UniProtKB/TrEMBL annotation:
It comes from Agromyces humatus. This is Neutral metalloproteinase. Residues 76-98 have a biased composition (Basic and acidic residues). Residues 51-107 are annotated as: Disordered. The lineage of its organism: Bacteria, Bacillati, Actinomycetota, Actinomycetes, Micrococcales. Residues 104-187 form the Peptidase M4 domain. Belongs to the peptidase M4 family. SUPFAM superfamilies: Metalloproteases ('zincins'), catalytic domain.
Length: 364
């Protein structure tokens, strides 16, 4: 049975590349067509109303286990495998925890990226891996023939090499790795259903932690951060900086072949569509902007301010699988108040971020 995937490159973008007559990117066009073919049955299945029980528990598994305190010093347990150009998982195990660099650039980048993601969750949020209980971090690289995507299949991260014309490859972007692993964290906490508004929030949460992993690893504060997701995955032949911009949704790329980044930056422009699980990669721009604005308003390191507030919400047990934007926004304001006090800077910054994107949270 095909595993469900959370892919970083949305179907509408692959469709643009696949449909391009342009002789500019013959390899990319062929690769995108193959990627779409491979993903098509999966996407149909995922948008069905009924989801298999292993993906969406009736009562989402909340972490009630104690998280590791500073004394416990959780350590990652990484395992990177090589699919050697086949579409087979997991592939051949090539680097385990503690082993020296393999010399394969993708293997070592994936290993390092898994480590950086683990560090953020362990040190900042006292979370021991994806499930909060030391789950091994597994990845497979060199998946498929110039496969134009990276995805989380519920157990592991899988990286394609990219076609080399449009996409450079996926292991070099720390925000992509953090994004994919955060899908696992969401599955183990809030269990946001991957459809419509709750699906866009699921995507949003992954972008939040993807950006935070990158900022944490390089010590960037909210002002100096790029707020881009997937920076560097496009080749120089493409007019694009990244897949998405959290701070300015709709501005990540504008290219003859790719088209223009279609993400809305305001709730008034929420996109109703049947594609992309109800526009999960599109409408995530709206909460993304609210988060980035709140982080910039507060200044300093985003993982210490809004990052903790968002993590509180994710693990609060107060989100439901079908939580929508308004409820989620209200929970973030509530979490800011609980952590920092009524009418605190943090509460005002979070409410202000949502207000700018058209979501007013009634003040209590
Ligand atoms: Zn995703």
């Amino acid at each position: 049975m095909q595993q469900p995937t959370h892919a970083i490159v949305p179907p509408y973008l692959l469709a643009r590349i696949a449909a391009a007559d342009d002789l500019r990117f013959p390899r990319a066009t062929a690769a995108a067509r193959r990627s779409l073919l491979r993903d098509a049955p999966l996407r149909e299945w995922r948008s069905a109303a009924e989801r298999p029980p292993f993906l969406l528990p009736e009562h989402p598994a909340r972490d009630e286990r104690p998280t590791a305190g500073p004394g416990l010093a959780p350590a990652p347990d990484r395992r990177v495998s090589d699919a050697e150009g086949e579409e087979r998982l997991p592939g051949r195990l090539v680097r385990r925890e503690g082993q020296p660099p393999s010399g394969d650039r993708s293997v070592d980048a994936a290993y390092d990226g898994l480590g950086e993601t683990f560090e953020l969750f362990a040190r900042v949020f006292s979370r021991d891996s994806i499930d909060g209980a030391g789950m091994p971090l597994e990845a497979t690289v060199h998946y498929g023939d110039r496969y134009d995507n990276a995805f989380w299949d519920g157990e592991r991260m899988v990286f394609g090499d990219g076609d080399g014309e449009v996409f450079r490859g996926f292991t070099d972007s720390l925000s992509v790795i953090g994004h994919e692993l955060a899908h696992g964290v969401t599955e183990h906490t809030a269990g946001l259903r991957y459809q419509g508004q709750s699906g866009a929030l699921n995507e949003h949460v992954s972008d939040v932690f993807g950006a935070l992993v990158e900022q944490y690893a390089s010590g960037q504060d909210a002002d100096s951060a790029s707020w881009l997701i997937g920076e560097g995955i496009f080749t120089d032949l493409v007019e694009g900086r990244a897949l998405r911009s959290m701070l300015n949704p709709g501005t990540a790329y504008d290219d003859d072949v790719l088209g223009r980044d279609p993400q809305p930056d305001h709730f008034d422009r929420y996109i109703e569509t049947d594609d992309d699980n109800g526009g999960v990669h599109l409408n995530s721009g709206i909460p993304n902007r609210a988060f980035a604005l709140a982080a910039r308003e507060l200044g300093g390191f985003a993982w210490e301010g809004v990052g903790r507030i968002w993590y509180d919400v994710l693990t609060s047990g107060r989100l439901r699988p079908d939580t929508g934007f308004r409820r989620f926004a209200a929970e973030t304001v509530r979490a800011a108040r609980e952590r920092h006090g009524r009418d605190s800077r943090e509460e005002r910054a979070v409410a202000g971020g949502w207000s700018t994107v058209g979501i007013e949270v009634p003040r209590e």
